[in-house]
Design brief:
single chain; alpha+beta; YefM-like fold; three-stranded mixed beta sheet; about 50% helix; elongated; YefM-like_sf; Antitoxin_Phd/YefM; Antitoxin
């Protein structure tokens, strides 16, 4: 999935119907910029759900790998003071935070 367009928020607003149709029917994402640091990507709900599934599968895989490594004696049992520390140890972004 390659990002095909990058539009300012005003231009995106004026073309929103077309952009949504392209995202839904053509799976063509569009980057929408409010400023140089505030950007979002418009994608279809199906593509969004696929990204969430892929992230979940990655998380499950990393946790399973850590459990297996512990079972083989390659990793110590860890206790974490926070959710952020747990995710950082597994090399994963914390859900809901910028990744």
């Amino acid at each position: 999935m390659a990002i095909t367009d990058s539009l300012g928020i005003a231009e995106a607003r004026s073309q929103l119907g077309t952009l949504v149709a392209r995202a839904v029917h053509g799976h063509q994402p569009t980057t929408i910029s409010r400023s140089t640091t505030e950007r979002a990507v418009l994608i279809s709900e199906d593509d969004y759900k696929a990204l969430l599934r892929a992230r979940h599968e990655l998380e499950v895989s990393r946790v399973s790998d850590a459990i297996a490594a512990h079972g083989r004696g390659e990793r110590e049992m860890m206790t974490y003071d926070s959710k952020e520390a747990f995710y950082a140890d597994l090399g994963l972004p914390v859900p809901g935070e910028h990744s």
